[in-house]
Design a protein that fits this description.
Strand order of the largest sheet: 1-3-4-5-6-9-7
Shape: globular
Radius of gyration: 15 Å
Order of helices and strands: EHEHEEEHEHEEE
Distance between the termini: 28 Å
Structural class: alpha+beta
Number of strands: 9
Low-confidence stretches: none
Length: 175
């Protein structure tokens, strides 16, 4: 079945929240390969964070729907100076591995180029996620020398299960 891609609206926040949490946290996330359940407990995001994100004209969530079911989403953002950013790439755990994530990344690239004039894209990934880093490498991303700290003092982004969390930054050019 083909997904319909569209920008998220505030009415989508409950479905977005459920999808993102299911893709990253808890036992349900272990059905897919994008889980962070071994790194973090608690929440990945909350409805208030999603509402703030959707109210900001410099970012939005692209969503993928099969009928009335939200099956995927990705945050896109304008970071200025021709740079886009994407994050919170989420696909329903039982649908992972079927190509939807790749289609969402391609849609994110196109949207960032068109809407923000992005010529390059940056993402941030836990270095412990070797399989995910490999997947992004196959999509043309390379590691930069940059790292970002994990917000240990902000439980709304998750409760760390280890003390060595940070992010590596990956980047690729857009055609």
């Amino acid at each position: 079945m083909t997904e319909i891609l569209r920008d998220a609206t505030s009415a989508d926040i409950p479905a977005l929240h459920r999808l993102i949490e299911s893709a990253y946290r808890g036992e349900a996330s272990r059905a897919g390969w994008t889980t962070e359940a071994d790194l973090l407990d608690g929440q990945r995001t909350d409805p208030e964070d999603l509402a703030t994100l959707l109210a900001d004209p410099a970012q939005t969530m692209l969503t993928a729907w099969r009928g009335d079911e939200l099956v995927g989403c990705v945050l896109i953002a304008d970071r200025g100076e021709g740079t886009g950013y994407f994050g919170m790439l989420s696909v329903s755990p039982t649908l992972q591995g079927g190509g939807l994530g790749r289609r969402l990344v391609e849609a994110a690239h196109a949207a960032m180029a068109e809407r923000f004039g992005a010529r390059r894209v940056r993402i941030s990934v836990f270095p412990q996620r070797d399989e995910l880093i490999g997947w992004y490498r196959r999509l043309g991303y390379g590691l930069t020398d940059e790292t970002l700290p994990f917000p240990y003092d902000e439980p709304r982004f998750g409760i760390p299960l280890r003390d060595d969390l940070h992010f590596v930054v990956m980047e690729r050019a857009l055609a």
